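Hey, quick one: can you model this chain's 3D structure?
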Amino acid sequence: MLNVKVSPVKNPQSGWFYGHSYMVQISRGEAKKLGRTLPEVGYEVIVKSVQDWLYSTSKHYLAIHNISGQLMLASCTTKIQDWPEIFGVSVFLK
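Sure thing. Here's the predicted structure for all 94 residues.
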């Protein structure tokens, strides 16, 4: 299990926002713990991809998004409370 320190998203910078149940703000240091290169502004990097056990053609994704220089850890399909079980990632508020 990977433990990551995060902050809630206070003021989304754009119209793009999955909601507080699906995304959190993450520091560069914590993002690097996930073992990937950091995305450029406007891009995302998938850090975990897991096959959905119910639908064989579907996957769950956990990604780091760079929104105007702010890094977000997000999944468009999986709530934060389910990340430990699905992705093996636990988040803790700073």
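One thing worth noting: The mean pLDDT is 87.
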